[in-house]
Structure formats: C-alpha cells, structure tokens
Amino acid sequence: MTTANEIADKIASEQGLTKAQGKTIVESVFAAITEAAAAGTETSIPGFGKFKVKDTPEREGRNPSTGATIKVAAARKLAFQPAKALKDALNK
C-alpha cells in the first residue's frame, strides 16, 4: 500500500523540495478534489482518470442477522473512472 506521506516524500525527492513542502502539495491536491466533490462537480486528471459524484437512490436492504427489511437512505458517493493510459499501464 502507498500512503499520502510516501507520495509526498517521492514528490519532494524528485522535485528537490522538503518533505513538508511535498506533503503540502499532496494535501492541496486532495483538498481540491474533495472541494469539487462536495460541490458536485467532476475532477478530471488527464492520463489518470476522473472523480465523479453519483447519487444513489433510497432502497430497501436486509439486516443479515435478523432478515428484517430496512430502508437504506439515499446518498451521494464518489466514483473513480480510470483513464485509458492508466488502464493500459495496469494491463501491460
């Protein structure tokens, strides 16, 4: 697993920055994606993919332990659609 700190360290070492500056960059990117998602807009990163907000309608579900029917509330979720370049890199 790769963590945000590992990504920040890699950016810092490749760009000649401090680890703190690298972490600030990574946090800024994540904050921008989060802000766009909260506003309901799509974030597209060419060559990587798109983050889209999708609405899920209210539905009926079952409690697995009792079998009772329950209502699952409508919600918004963040979906990721990888770009072709990323798919191709995964399937080499």
UniProtKB/TrEMBL annotation:
SUPFAM superfamilies found in the cross-reference section: IHF-like DNA-binding proteins
GO MF assignments: DNA binding; structural constituent of chromatin
Q: Do the record's keywords include Cell division? A: no
TM region positions:
none
Swiss-Prot/TrEMBL keywords: DNA condensation, DNA-binding
GO terms of biological process kind: chromosome condensation
Q: Does the keyword DNA-binding apply?
A: yes
Q: Which superkingdom heads the taxonomic lineage of this protein's source?
A: Bacteria
* Record-stated family: Belongs to the bacterial histone-like protein family.
Name used for this protein in its record: HU family DNA-binding protein
The protein's organism comes out as Endobacterium cereale
